[in-house]
Design a protein that fits this description.
Elements (H helix, E strand, L loop, with lengths): L2 H22 L4 E7 L1 E17 L3 E4 L4 E3 L9 E2 L5 E7 L7 H48 L4 H37 L4 H4 L6 E4 L4 E6 L5 E3 L4 E6 L4 E8 H4 L7 E5 L7 E8 L4 E4 L5 E12 L13 E18 L4 E3 L2 E8 L2 E13 L2 E6 L6 E4 L11 E3 L4
Parallel strand pairs: 1-22
Antiparallel strand pairs: 1-21, 2-11, 2-16, 3-10, 4-6, 4-9, 5-8, 6-7, 8-10, 11-15, 12-13, 12-16, 13-15, 14-15, 16-20, 17-18, 18-19, 19-20
Helix pairs in contact: 2-3
Length: 399
């Protein structure tokens, strides 16, 4: 074999060995990476809530009666003390059966007879008083002439006084009979008789604002205290949210909140005003009983920052429970459990280095790093279960 042939065979063998080594040599795993950075971090509790007017006015019927068809509609503006929001009339009298009507008519006849009797007694008392006055005048004249005794004069005066009192009693009996007759006649009054007996009771708005709800626009019979409508100022809104009791204990009055997905383009700022001290039970969509706590928030900023927002509109709120302006943080997707704690794979010179870390607050997809990393360190995102300490890695290039 010539030297040329030998060299060619050796070269082919070396190339074949190199190709096999290159094919069998482990390739670096392509992974997504992100750096650990410093910046602000907020821990929040998300909840769904509704807006509501802070001080709504519920208007109720002051008397039992018939409320006329509502003169206003939901959404109308009203002026306090001026705008008529409802008109009421007293309730129509109940219909009487045949027996009740007969008894009422008999009572009227009885009252008329009693009234006629008192009229007769009154005229008789007037006649007696007139005679007593004439007798007294004669007795006084005779007493001055010395014709009759002093005792006779006193008897005439006493008779005049008794006649005067009898006339007063007769007049009182006449007034009593008049009232009894009016009462018995009133029992026979019908709805038609009362239709034009008086004007409607006008109910005016107690404050200026917008009509939020009308119980029923149609005319109807209502009892005293029945709700008619509600009025509120849409410029003065608050937010009500329900939190799990375990989350509510982490919220403090005065905490900041962010209102989003309310319909506008920008987020709105709010602040926690009140956390109610008692919880209530609510069954979740999964059928689990939950203890919930109502939390009330105030908007920060004027009504011009939330155009179109009204009563009982749905909003989404994130209440801030902790915040810091400068912390070392990394994406939560880089973390995994390791020996009862947390760890990440750090990228060092093309190699994945298993690095235990100590984590603080976690929020909004990021985690606070208390120990184990420095700012700028590249960490592997979503590490697979096959990735091991010391494995070769390379950053995945987006297609």
């Amino acid at each position: 074999m010539t030297w040329a042939r030998r060299l060619t065979t050796a070269g082919l063998a070396a190339a074949l060995i190199a190709a096999l080594v290159w094919a069998l040599w482990p390739k670096p795993e392509a992974v997504d990476m992100a750096p650990a950075t410093r910046g602000p971090l907020r821990e929040t509790i998300a909840a769904e809530g509704i807006t509501r007017v802070r001080e709504p006015y519920a208007i109720t019927a002051p008397i039992s009666g018939t409320v006329e068809r509502s003169p206003i509609l939901v959404g109308d503006r009203v002026v306090g003390g001026e705008t008529v929001v409802a008109r009421m009339r007293p309730a129509d009298p109940a219909l009487m059966d045949a027996r009740s009507r007969a008894q009422a008519e008999a009572a009227v006849v009885e009252a008329q007879a009693a009234r006629a009797l008192t009229e007769t007694n009154f005229r008789r008392a007037m006649s007696v008083l007139s005679n007593a006055r004439s007798a007294l005048d004669r007795a006084r004249a005779l007493a001055q002439a010395g014709t009759i005794s002093q005792r006779a004069l006193e008897d005439a005066e006493q008779a005049f006084t008794a006649a005067t009192q009898a006339l007063t009693a007769a007049r009182s009996e006449q007034d009593l009979a008049d009232a009894t007759l009016a009462r018995t006649r009133a029992q026979l009054l019908t709805a038609a008789d009362l239709a034009d007996s008086g004007g409607a009771l006008l109910i005016r708005a107690p404050q200026s604002g917008t009509v939020l709800e009308v119980a029923d626009q149609s005319a109807r019979l209502v009892a005293a205290g029945a709700p008619l409508l509600s009025i509120g100022d849409l410029q003065d809104l608050e937010i009500e949210i329900d939190l799990l009791s375990t989350d509510a204990v982490r919220v403090q009055a005065g905490a900041e909140a962010i209102v989003e997905r309310w319909g506008g383009d920008a987020e709105l700022a709010a602040v926690v005003r009140r956390i109610q001290p008692s919880a209530f039970t609510r069954v979740s969509a999964l059928g689990i009983e939950e203890q919930r706590v109502r939390v009330l928030l105030d908007f920060i900023g004027g009504p011009e920052t939330r155009p179109g927002l009204g009563e009982r509109f749905r909003v989404y709120v994130r209440v801030v429970t902790w915040a810091a302006d400068d912390v070392l943080k990394l994406p939560q997707s880089a973390l995994f459990r390791y020996q009862g704690g947390w760890a990440v794979f750090r990228h060092v010179d093309g190699v994945a280095v298993l690095t235990p870390v100590r984590i603080g607050h976690q929020a909004e997809g990021e985690a606070e790093v208390l120990d184990g990393l420095e700012a700028g360190a590249q960490v592997v995102l979503f590490p697979s279960s096959n990735l091991a300490d010391g494995a070769a890695i390379t950053e995945r290039v987006a297609p």
